[in-house]
Amino acid sequence: MQHYSMTPSTFDQDLDMSQMELPPRPTLFDFHGVSMIKHVTENWDSVQNFKARPDDILIATYPKAGTTWVSYILDLLYFGQTSPERQASIPIHERVPFLEISTPSRPSGKDLADQLPTTPRLIKTHLPVQFVPKSFWEQNSRIIYVARNAKDSAVSYFHFNRMNIAQPEPVVFGSWYDHVNGWWEKKQTYSNLHYMFYEDLIEDCGREIDRLCSFLGLSPSAEEKERVTNGVTFDNMKANKMTNYSSVPVMNHRVSPFMRKGKVGDWKNHFTVAQDKQFEEDYKQKMKNPTLKFRTEV
Ligand code: PPS
Predict the structure, then answer these.
(1) 160: nearest Cα among 62, 77, 232, 45
(2) Would residue 8 count as lying in a domain?
(3) What pLDDT is stored for residue 121 in this prediction?
(4) Phi and psi, residue 153, nearest 5°
(5) Closest residue by CA, ligand 1 atom 19
(6) Is 179 a catalytic residue?
(7) Distance, CA 64 to ligand 1 centroid (Å)?
(8) High-pLDDT (> 90) share of the chain, %
(9) What is the pLDDT at residue 8?
(10) Which atom of ligand 1 lies at the shortest distance from residue 159's CA?
């Protein structure tokens, strides 16, 4: 196989789950035109009736676009100084609940969001724009959408599906194209939406934090900003038990760590030249909106 780079791919490394008793992976099904799993649809009415507040901040992404990164940036900006306990003992996925998730063994994301004691409440969603509970629009809540180029999203999602047995065969939350375009169109009419890109964060995280702060009306001191920028580097988040998802039982980090590579362009280690050509042809058909542009390298 001709690869873009000679760097060996990480496929199949360390992959021996054959000895483990694993529950079956959830099945994908069509849900109003979007491929979903029961863990994100079972609590549907309750999620749809979620009562958003004007000061809530919703972090919306297609999976693997940098949700955790931006969640942690916001968490540090708002609560980094005031709540050392929060930083030391509450994992990021509890500080920033995943709104639509509902599994038998844990409180639902909606309940966790309802119970958040903070102001603002930081809430994560992977829902395509048409499924977002209407109270967010009615309350004019602030929304941050993070998008990542399709090729790196596909590679990251592929590895995530290997390590997380709560994932079906790819891919839940439907088409990447519909997701990034649906949210992009929403931005044209809903002004409280900040649309940002993973590639920009990689290129200059400090600049993106400045843009986020200006959207949120925050003005951290130089020292505070330095603390946030330093806390959210890939290496620091990978080493931090509160941000690396090491406490989540359905994830096997020996198969592939949640904090995997954190790069733009890793797709080159996975796509053959022929696959890339095929991908580009398909991309041209599906990405009709010329104003939404992604970078696959920086
Ligand atoms: S999820 O499961 O949808 O919430 O995943 P998500 O957090 O959106 O995306 C995970 C990918 O983001 C990378 N990541 C980072 N990259 C660079 N710097 C920082 N600080 C960072 N934090 C998370 C993470 O490594 C996953 O990407 P890949 O390409 O798999 O490494």
Answers:
(1) 62
(2) no
(3) 98
(4) -60, -45
(5) 234
(6) no
(7) 6
(8) 84
(9) 29
(10) 30
Residues 245/133, Cβ–Cβ less than 8 Å? no
138 Cα: distance to centroid of ligand 1 (angstroms):
30
Among protein residues, the one whose CA lies closest to atom 5 of ligand 1: 64
Neighbours of 273 (CB within 10 A): 11
pLDDT computed for residue 1 by the predictor: 37
State the Cα–Cα distance between residues 185 and 190, nearest whole angstrom.
9
Say how far apart CA 290 and CA 21 lie, in whole Å.
48
pLDDT-wise least confident of 8-22, 101-115, 146-160, 181-195: 8-22
218-227 tens-digit pLDDT? 999 999 999 9
CATH at residue 174: 3.40.50.300
Report pLDDT digits (tens) over 89-119: 999 999 999 999 999 889 999 999 999 999 9
Our answer on whether the CB atom of 69 is closer than 6 Å to any ligand 1 atom is: yes
CA 77 to chain centre: 18
pLDDT tops 50 at residue 50 = yes
For the CA of 164, the nearest atom of ligand 1 = 2
Is residue 7 assigned to a domain?
no
Residue 79 lies in a domain: yes
* Number of domain units in the chain: 1
Q: How many whole angstroms from 65 Cα to the centroid of ligand 1?
A: 6
User: Which residue has tokens 């050392």?
Assistant: 84
Any atom of ligand 1 within 6 Å of the Cβ of 65 = yes
The finding on whether 76 has its CB within 6 A of some atom of ligand 1 is no
Nearest CA to ligand 1 atom 12: 66
